[in-house]
Specification:
128 residues; alpha+beta; two-stranded antiparallel ribbon; 30% helix
């Protein structure tokens, strides 16, 4: 898949997340997806994302940096949000915070097959 096409596919995936369009998540994520080297499958991946939106009602994925080298995408996502309680083991409890996630994706057959994610928890801890 060409660079531009993979980048567009990724942007459409992020739009799907921001709309919480769970019925169409399977267009972007493989049924056998792995997250941080652990098999979660599409159902588990969706449940993880739904849990994120429950914990952070104003969650919005903002792409700050996007690099594409098919079949992989690297992205830096920025979040400016207000989690309701404990987030990543930290007592945020309704405080507005900002943090970033560095995430790498491997695509297979036009869908996300593997995800490796690192969230800047230190930035969150510094704000609470």
């Amino acid at each position: 898949m060409p660079h531009g096409q993979l980048s567009d596919l990724y942007r459409n995936y992020i739009d799907c997340l921001n709309r919480q369009d769970w019925m169409n998540l399977g267009q972007f994520v493989d049924d056998k997806v792995h997250y941080n080297d652990r098999w979660v499958g599409l159902v588990g991946y969706r449940e993880m994302l739904e849990g994120d939106f429950r914990a952070i009602p104003d969650l919005h994925f903002n792409i700050e940096l996007l690099l594409s080298d098919p079949p992989c995408v690297a992205s830096r996502l920025h979040f400016d949000c207000t989690p309701t309680g404990i987030l990543f083991g930290l007592p945020v409890n309704g405080k507005r915070i900002q943090f970033d996630e560095n995430v790498f994706y491997e695509f297979a057959n036009g869908r996300i097959a593997r995800v490796w994610s690192i969230i800047d928890k230190a930035a969150i801890a510094d704000q609470i």
